[in-house]
Write a structure and sequence with these properties.
This is YciI family protein. The chain is α+β, with helices and mostly antiparallel strands and about 100 residues long. The protein contains 4 helices and 4 strands. The radius of gyration is 13 Å and the shape is globular. The two termini are about 15 Å apart.
Length: about 100
């Protein structure tokens, strides 16, 4: 099943995001221990097209619990970067 993770940064989180960016990328490089696969992911950006303000993931996983465990273990979550995280099931229609 596919799940979308939509995570919006808390106000003023950009310096913390940048400080944890390498750990976050390393974490995303191997998701096998969670039984999930990243279909696509990347930062959400402000209207300037560059300033990172959140994260978006499309995850393939056996169930919601696997996605929640994956998300909780992300260094960005541990650093308290995200103000609000929404995990929603997704049905692919195109693409």
């Amino acid at each position: 099943m596919l799940f979308a993770i939509h995570a919006v940064d808390r106000a003023g989180a950009l310096p913390t995001r940048l400080a944890n960016y390498d750990a976050h990328k390393a974490f995303l490089s191997d998701t096998s221990r969670f039984g999930v696969k990243i279909v696509m992911s990347g930062p959400l950006v402000s209207d300037d097209g560059q300033t990172m303000i959140g994260s978006l993931f499309l995850i393939e996983a056996p169930g919601r619990g696997d996605v929640e465990a994956f998300n909780r273990a992300d260094p960005f979550a541990a650093a308290g970067i995200w103000d609000k995280v929404t995990i929603t099931g997704f049905l692919r229609r195109q693409g």
